[in-house]
Amino acid sequence: VQLQAFGGGLVQAGGSLRLSCASSGRTFSGVRMAWFRQATGKEREFVASIVWSSTSTSYADSVKGRFTISRDNTKNTVYLQMNSLKPEDSAVYYCAPRSYSPSFSWGQGTQVTVSS
Asked: Given this model, what pLDDT does residue 69 score?
């Protein structure tokens, strides 16, 4: 399964971006999906996750209250609305199953750059 993330870009601090993630193959059926990010020189970190039914979400403390994860199962797409962006949010953002396998292919991700 190849997951493609879209919607990144350059934005000023305090601005907003909306990321999208779509699958080129299998659906996300029944899968808890998540967003992760990796800043230059740092390890990949968890950002947010959402269950299939959208009834439960989880966020990293660093983005709580600013980011919102959602999904549209009819479109097999997961979203990440990012508001009040900070320079420390700059990273490559990826989507993946929350519990990804060691062989999971991360894809290219989408670059988010927040200028101060």
From this structure: 98
